[in-house]
Amino acid sequence: MKLFLDTAIYEEVEQGVTWGIVDGVTTNPTLIAKAGMDHEEQVKRICQIVGNDSAEVVSEKMDDMIVEGRRLAAWHKNVIVKVPLTPEGLGAGKVLAGEGTRINVTLCFSVNQALLAAAIGAYIVSPFAGRLDDINEDGMRVVADIVSAYRQQEIKTKVLAASIRNPMHVTQAALAGADIGTMPFAVLKMLFDHPLTEAGQKKFLEDYRKTQEAKPVATKR
Ligand code: E4P
After folding, report:
1. Pairing with 185, which of 6, 148, 161, 164 sits 20 to 30 Å away (CA)?
2. What atom of ligand 1 comes closest to residue 104's alpha carbon?
3. Is a pLDDT exceeding 80 seen at residue 218?
4. Does the predicted model carry a pTM greater than 0.85?
């Protein structure tokens, strides 16, 4: 499972890329607003350091979404255009996909919706696990069911587990067979954490220092 960052903050992406663990980025209008930066400028900067950044259309009508999607796709070859799982969004996605633009269908909450995304030739479908958990449904079960339906139907659309809220969600998404998991920077950092790693590394360094201190001082002949 590839690890994506769900952020519009360049510095977070840069850190994840420097660690060698981040393959892509997803953004949405809420994250853009939170980052408080110019959308185009931010997406272009991010695209210079990762192979893909999903940028979402905010128009409401299909024709406007098509125009906006073309504009987003022209920003950089690494832009994936995100459209909502609505009739207008899918109609626009179909046209854009037909033009060769990679489409990420967002706001997916069911297997049936994921089948619609596949039908328009989406490159990615994004089921929002955390938001399903929020309404007392099993979000990761839906992710697993979409993966299973796609495998049975030999559908190539990638399943991106979105709305990941904690490290356990990451493990569950991987075990469910998701192709990609997108998460906030705080969750990505938590993936490193294990008390035995921390304690083991501390002890290794202490023992190394002891051997250095115990070394006999070289004497001149
Ligand atoms: C994914 O593309 C979405 O931006 C994101 O995962 C939504 O997460 P949230 O439900 O925590 O806002």
Report:
1. 148
2. 2
3. no
4. yes
